[in-house]
Design a protein that fits this description.
The chain is mainly beta and 203 residues long. The protein is built from two helices and twelve strands; from the N terminus they run E-E-E-E-E-E-E-E-E-E-E-E-H-H. The chain has a five-stranded parallel sheet, with no helix packed on it. The radius of gyration is 19 Å and the shape is elongated. 35% of the residues are buried.
Length: 203
């Protein structure tokens, strides 16, 4: 076990290939251009850390938190996040496919313009996330919480939205033509676009 707390450390260009970290905390650390391929973390915390052009390909993270971290042109292809939190973190021009999220919290995360086409994003918490302009075509979003998410111009064609939670703004902002929804969602979509839905009844 390791309960160390590391603050303000410069890991730029560091080679951390296939390291295994458990219960470590990093605050305001710089991992720019570090080689972190195959990194395994468990119960770690990264707060306000920078991952610019960092290679995190094929990394594995369990019960780890990345809070308000910056991922800029980072490589995350092949990485797995299980029971993790990415609260308030931002992803800009990153390589994310393929990526695996299981029971992960992406509340307030910025994923504007990202390409997650055909990914499995079921049962995630994405409340108030910025998904503007993101490519989520053919994505499995069943059961995902998207309340308050920014979905302006988000591509959802072919996505499976059954059981997902969207508010009226989401239905208006996103491009949902071709998405699969349940009956309740179809009614919510109609209401968001100003239609009045009434049941046909007999005399």
């Amino acid at each position: 076990m390791d309960d160390s707390v590391i603050i303000g450390e410069d890991y730029a260009d560091a080679v951390l290939f296939q390291e295994k970290w458990e219960r470590r905390s990093f605050e305001r650390c710089d991992f720019s251009e570090a080689d972190m391929r195959g990194l395994v973390t468990k119960g770690c915390t990264f707060t306000n850390c920078t991952f610019a052009r960092t290679d995190l390909g094929d990394s594995r993270h369990t019960a780890t938190a990345f809070r308000s971290c910056v991922f800029d042109r980072a490589v995350l292809a092949g990485s797995v996040f299980s029971s993790c939190s990415l609260l308030g973190s931002s992803f800009t021009a990153c390589v994310l496919r393929p990526i695996t999220f299981r029971e992960t919290d992406l509340t307030l995360a910025s994923l504007a313009g990202v390409n997650l086409r055909k990914m499995d994003l079921r049962d995630l918490r994405m409340r108030e996330a910025n998904l503007s302009g993101a490519d989520l075509r053919d994505v499995d979003l069943r059961g995902t919480d998207l309340l308050g998410a920014r979905l302006l111009g988000t591509e959802l064609g072919g996505a499976d939205l059954r059981g997902a939670r969207l508010d009226a703004n989401g239905w208006v902002q996103a491009k949902v033509a071709g998405a699969t929804v349940d009956l309740g969602m179809a009614i919510a979509f109609a209401a968001a676009h100003g239609l009045v839905v009434e049941e046909m009844g007999g005399e």
